UniProtKB/TrEMBL annotation:
UniProt-listed PANTHER family: BLUE COPPER PROTEIN, EARLY NODULIN-LIKE PROTEIN 7
Species per Swiss-Prot/TrEMBL record: Zizania palustris
GO cellular component, one term: plasma membrane
Keywords of this entry: Signal
Signal peptide (from-to): 1-31
Domain Phytocyanin: 41-141
Name of the protein: Phytocyanin domain-containing protein
Domain of life: Eukaryota
Pfam families assigned: Cu_bind_like
InterPro entries: Phytocyanin-like (IPR039391), Phytocyanin_dom (IPR003245)
């Protein structure tokens, strides 16, 4: 038996509603599918000078270097050095040059900044630490847009005693940070899934309308 006029009108209305919903949802779904994700950056600590004992009068060498960069989660920092060492410490160890854990002394050490907050690093040699070979950086949550210039991080307090170092390198600090290649990148999601879902939705609506019209 053929379908009545009321059924035909109802089926047509249902089909039009389905098409309208799909048309309205498509731009939003596709827009979400192509939003880019920020790539983690990799920084060489100290720029071209690397990780070394600061020369006389440059105790704040690494504080100035860190002040020129805004660090985010998923960034990484690399310490490059010769006949030296580096170790990650806590706040007390940073300010008092209290080193207890085993240092990394193979010429290069890479650290991933995987959570927001302050992180501290120091040379395992207490004398070098007191001369300024230590680093404090503030890691921020990953932003949705490109980072801007960071505020300065205060240098270590002047109450720490300074012990003369022997054989300190004569290299001068570099004013600008050196940024190496990216270490992590999240690929933007494809929009093909969104298009497939919309096509399937439209096909289902057409099939339902055809079924009603055949009754």
């Amino acid at each position: 038996m053929g379908c009545s006029m009321a059924q035909r009108r109802g089926a047509s209305s249902f089909f039009l509603v389905c098409v309208l919903v799909a048309a309205l949802a498509a731009p939003r779904v596709c827009a979400r599918a192509v939003v880019p994700t920020r790539m983690g950056k990799r920084y060489i600590v100290g720029g071209p000078d690397g990780w070394t004992t600061p020369p006389p009068g440059s105790k704040d060498m690494y504080a100035k270097w860190a002040a020129g960069i805004r660090f985010f989660v998923d960034d990484s920092i690399e310490f490059v050095y010769t006949n030296d060492s580096v170790i990650k410490v806590d706040k007390f160890g940073y300010y008092h040059c209290n080193v207890t854990a085993a240092p990394s002394g193979d010429g290069s050490a890479l650290f991933l900044l995987n959570k927001p907050g302050l992180v501290y690093f120091s040379c395992a040699d207490v004398k070098h630490c007191k001369l300024g070979q230590r680093l404090m950086i503030n890691v921020e949550a990953a932003p949705s847009s490109a980072p801007s210039t960071a505020p300065a991080i205060p240098a270590p307090g002047s109450s720490i005693a300074i012990t003369p170092a022997t054989g300190a390198p004569s290299s001068s600090p570099g004013p600008a940070p050196e940024e190496a290649s990216s270490t992590s990148a999240a690929s933007p999601p494809s929009s093909s899934l969104a298009h497939g879902m919309l096509l399937a939705f439209s096909a289902t609506a057409v099939a339902m309308m055809s079924s009603i019209l055949r009754e």
